[in-house]
Amino acid sequence: MEPFQVVSGPAAPLMLANVDTDVIVRIERLTNEPREALTRFAFEALRFRPDGSEDPGCVLNRPPFRGAPLLLADANFGCGSSREGAVWALQAIGVRCVIAPSFGDIFFSNCFQNGVLPIRLPVEQVRVLATLAADGALFTVDLLQNVVLAADGSRWPFEVEPLRRVSLLEGLDDIGLTLKHAGAIDEWESADLAARPWNWPMKTAGL
Amino acid sequence: MISSTLFDKVWDRHVVADLGGGWALIHIDRHLLHDLSGPPALAEVAARGLAVRHPELAFATPDHAVSSLPKRSGRTNAAGAPLWQALKDRSRSAGVRFFDVGERGQGIVHVMGPELGIVLPGTTVVCGDSHTCTNGGLGALAFGIGSSESTHVLATQTLRQQKPARMRVRFDGSLAAGVTPKDLALHLLATVGASAGVGHAIEYAGATVRALDVEGRLTLCNLSIELGAKVGMVAPDDTTFEYISGRMSAPSRELFDRAVADWRTLATDADARFDREVAVDAAAIAPTITWGTSPDQGVAIDGRIPDPADAPDAATRLAWKQALDYMGLQPGRPIAGTPVDWVFIGSCANSRLTDLRDAARVARGRKIAAGVTAWVVPGSEQVKRDAEAEGLDAVFRAAGFEWRAPGCSMCVAANGERVPAGARSVSTSNRNFVGRQGPGARTHLASPAMAVAAAVAGAIADVRRLEVA
């Protein structure tokens, strides 16, 4: 996983609430297209008109925000489907960090699995950031310091779960970390088999 | 003893290691795999040179990208065929039980899991699908995960999770005629909003929930993720135990009795505390249908399409306006009477036998309106066979519905089955997102009975009037 430490650039203000993962990327694009092609298909319902042409009114198509590494959104960003491809689609258009008042829980977890940082800030703060971002001003997201720095010198501290922060900073892999607990997993399973054998009846041949 | 909630009891007994800060390594008892999320996760485990730790705890079936055309083959939806084949091949090489098309067990994963007795009370259940919360209707702690987490479960049979806050939704009162578990969920969404459950595990409680059959509880839990909650649960009771008894993977005889004794201890203690409580008067709920592009944008069937001018704030006004534009609706008009082109009865929300009985009861002896295309897609091969044994397929066919083969079909349009752009659909699924049923498709979410009423009227209609007539 690509580590996340400090990322700088413009922030695209996509100030809509309840942006669902179907809108971030349609399911058919994940089944029918290679991952590299997602650059064209991220947010396609917002970025493109029904005839396939780019909608110049969409903030993601305006020059300062094309390829912007930061995205600002309203509440419940990434709600809906669990598709991890929603994070891959964001990465395909260059997004490394999303700042919103709240996120869909599954999307939030999927971000950390892929080196994308989701930051929760109060809605009033996100709206101020969206105003500051409107002309393409540069921001720096510093995960070492847990702060967003705006071009006007203002500082916006944020919190990230310590376990997740370390994994992001170092690009650690969850499976590798968990396999260190192999002994504890063995013990738990032996105890559970004794206490609740009905949870363990299934053998492939037996069904 | 400290009093505890259903969620806490199931969570606590699955903690393998405390990781600190509210995080734990929890054991996963059941892993459902489908044709979209299953193959990449299985491939990744193999690519890392790891083994699937407990193949006997994983169960695979193709549902998302398979055609629902009767007598389908891989060629019917060519784009989905490699996924179907990959799930079959990778499941077999890993030793994971695979239920193929045409076989009992094939179907939407969240229909298959409960009906085969794979999902049991007090188990932890995951799947690379957000509607895994459906399985909480049996008292399981079930939630959707991404493909990286799915790989993690295959390799370790555990997940690193942060314990969510707890929320209880109590429904009390008897349901009025024409009101179903789907209406409870849509009404709740319209009342508390699509982010009310973010960061929470929800328990549904109260006399109304106790009176629901298991399939109704599965429907109610299905829409938890639409509230933002990964987890929705109902405490297991005699209704649950009766449902589970005799199912394929359920314990039998003495072991079943021991299991039931354990499952009875899972119910939330009388004085347990929740982080958030919501109470709903279920008797006051009318059949409910969505008008917008978020599942919380719903109204009672005798209500009106909202006017952005009445929105509480600027952000909501913009959201309502965009939704009305996409949906092609005029504010202030009654929702009933809106012309409909498509009707879809199916999905993990409403494709079980009781759903199809409900729909057939309204469809019996009636005809769908000219110009409406109406599909019934049973949730599983078992549901299909059971419905056919009762003659429900004949009722639907006589009314002008197409009787299709099991899968997710037009809920998510991952198999190429789409509502055309600009067409209006009444759907028993769970998401009315922009483009969900196909680019430009306009989706109204409702119960199976309401979907039939719309098909018959050729417009959004109040099923209560139809049943009286």
CATH architecture of the largest domain in chain B: 2-Layer Sandwich
Sheet-strand content of chain B, in percent, reads 15-25%
Distance between the termini of chain B: 57 Å
Q: What is the global morphology of chain A?
A: globular
Which key phrases capture this entry?
heterodimer; A: 207 residues; alpha/beta; Aconitase, domain 4; 2 domains; seven-stranded mixed beta sheet; 7 strands; 36% helix; globular; disordered C terminus; B: 469 residues; Aconitase, domain 3; five-stranded parallel beta sheet; 19 strands
Your description of this structure?
The complex is a heterodimer of chains A (207) and B (469). By secondary structure, chain A is of the alpha/beta class. Chain A has two domains: 6-160, Aconitase, domain 4; 171-200, no CATH class. Helix content of chain A is 36%, strand content 16%. Chain A has helices spanning 21-24, 27-32, 38-41, 44-47, 85-92, 105-113, 123-133, 162-170, 174-179, 182-195, and strands at 6-14, 70-73, 97-100, 117-120, 138-142, 147-150, 155-157. By secondary structure, chain B is of the alpha/beta class. Chain B has two domains: 6-276, Aconitase, domain 3 (2-Layer Sandwich), CATH 3.30.499.10; 292-468, Aconitase, domain 3. Chain B is built from 16 helices and 19 strands. Chain B has helices at residues 6-13, 38-47, 81-94, 109-115, 147-156, 181-192, 207-211, 214-222, 238-244, 253-263, 314-327, 353-363, 381-389, 392-399, 448-457, 463-468, and strands at 15-20, 23-27, 30-33, 58-60, 97-98, 124-127, 141-144, 158-162, 165-172, 200-205, 231-233, 276-281, 288-290, 298-300, 342-345, 373-376, 402-403, 424-427, 442-445. In chain B, the strands form five sheets. In chain B, strands 5-4-3-6-7 form a five-stranded parallel sheet, sandwiched between helices. The longest helix of chain B is centred in the N-terminal third of the chain and has 14 residues, at 81-94. Chain B is globular and about 55 Å long. The mean pLDDT of chain B is 97. Classes of the chains: A alpha/beta (207), B alpha/beta (469). Chains A and B meet through helix 2, helix 6, helix 9 and helix 10 of A and strand 1, strand 2, helix 5, strand 8 and helix 10 of B.
